[in-house]
Amino acid sequence: MPLRVYNTLSGSKEEFVPINPGKVGMYVCGVTVYDDCHIGHARANIVFDMIYRYLRAKGLEVTYVRNYTDIDDKIISRANRDGVSYQVISERYIAEFDRDMARLMLLLPTFQPKATEHIQEIIALVERLIAKGFAYQSDADVFFCVEKFDDYLRLSKRNLEDMQAGARIEVDERKRHPMDFALWKGAKPGEPYWESPWGQGRPGWHIECSAMSMKFLGETFDIHGGGKDLIFPHHENEIAQAEAATGKPFVKYWLHNGFVNINAEKMSKSLGNFFTIKQVLERYDAEVLRFFLLSSHYRSPIDFSDQNLKDAELGLERIYKALAGVDERLAAGAGDQPPSAEEAELAEKGKGIAARFAEAMDDDFNTALALGHLFDLVRSINKALPFASADLLALVKREVEAIAGVLGVCDSVPASFLQRIKERKTSEMEISAEEIEQLIAERAEARKAKNFKRSDEIRDDLLARNIVLLDGPQGTSWKVK
Fold first, then answer.
1. Within a 13 Å sphere around the CA of 432, how many CA atoms are in the beta-carbon half?
2. Which long-range contacts (CB under 8 A, 24 or more apart) does 59-62 make?
3. Domains along the chain?
4. Quick one: which of 318, 315, 309 has its CA closest to 285?
5. CA distance 161 to 394
6. Is the Cα dihedral 384, 388, 391, 393 positive or negative?
7. How far is the C-alpha of 265 from the C-alpha of 267, rounded, in Å?
8. pLDDT tens digit string along 363-418?
9. pTM for this one?
10. Long-range contacts of 459-468 (CB under 8 A, 24+ apart)
11. What is the three-class DSSP state of 352?
């Protein structure tokens, strides 16, 4: 089955055929570096990291470019508020972004360009647009003339006349059309600037990505990605600038991830209903957040909640516990066992999991279905664990690890991950581990004295606090419910 992707430009799934056989150029819009990143940023970056990993796993040579917008109105405003230069703000939050992405186990892109390092390429692109009649100077600003570009708004499927009629845009006498957008902004007093043919100023947001993507990937490339919120105006304007300048198609496939919702509302800073990555990772393991964000199809909205994160944690625990069980059996020297139905089922699923995983991922990177296949295999592992041979267990473990590697999860030693999760759950308990152990010892004495009423009271009291007791041949252990 060939890889098929949903192309926002066509509004349909298409077979993915690289422009240059065996090679892929992919550009993903990075962050504007003026504050800590939130989980919306985490979703976009994890999604395209997953796509990057899968394309490479298919044997494609991927050039992955993700930029930093390090000059922008918001950066200047933050610098003025903090009483420092814009460079201090941008470098601070580039470093914070890099730390967040490393914790979320993202692979490094091939190139990570900064807008301020490509001012000459941006100026050259603006000059091309002016020379071709698609842009005009007004005072120290340069604007793109949207009426000159016939295919404007074909990505977002909007209508220019309808947008103009419903626009809530302050009248700007410098523009020929209310929807015209800035390619170059003249510097206001006290603002950072660069010299240009139009005077001192700085680039507009949209032109930065067009210039940087074409520098590293050429005037036409395979994939451009980002969140759905970037379709208009950012990606729409990128298309207009690039294609007006070159006369060539800009991007073959446009991929966009869905929103993160909080209480059924889109998460946004303007609504004040957002969580930073740091805030989430104070409570949950980074692998859990990554697993949660891949548990839904990347184009679908995903509901962020404490309960959904706990469900993701439980799911990841199930996989790790199965791997830990395999490790224990292999360490104990699992030998040949009499044939069993459980082992036969595991052999069938283990040998077929790679094909089922690929089929799911080839259907527009359907990680939700891919994880469903993985959980189905985990169920078979747990059933067959006492019966399976060492060779079969080793094969199944390799298959699970290969799938997990493409998704960027299960990168820890199973025992280490499970211990981290236990410590997290323990830290949120209303009762300490020491108190639990004391009550377990008291319960053991009560049972020895045949005081089953007290034994049951202790068990029920702990259960009410989400502590489950597990009685076994070696004694009583406990876990957080």
1. 3
2. 59/22, 60/18, 60/22, 60/23, 60/24, 61/22, 61/23, 61/24, 62/23, 62/24, 62/25, 62/26, 62/110
3. 4-281 (3.40.50.620), 305-420 (1.20.120.640), 429-480 (no CATH)
4. 309
5. 63
6. positive
7. 6
8. 999 999 999 999 999 999 999 998 889 999 999 999 999 999 999 999 888 888 88
9. 0.89
10. 462/431, 462/436, 465/429, 465/430, 465/431, 466/429, 467/429, 467/431, 467/436
11. helix
Read off the tokens for 97. Answer: 């972004």
User: Amino acid identity of 317?
Assistant: E
The DSSP line for 30-83 is --BSSS--BHHHHHHHHHHHHHHHHHHHTT-EEEEEE-BB-SSHHHHHHHHHHT
Q: Which of 300-304, 320-324, 468-472 has the lowest mean pLDDT?
A: 468-472
Amino acid at 52: Y
- Those residues with Cβ within 8 angstroms of residue 44's Cβ, 6 or more apart along the chain or in another chain: 28, 225, 226, 227, 257
Quote the Cα angle for 245-123-32, to 5°. Answer: 100
| Residues 102-114 pLDDT 10s | 999 999 999 999 9
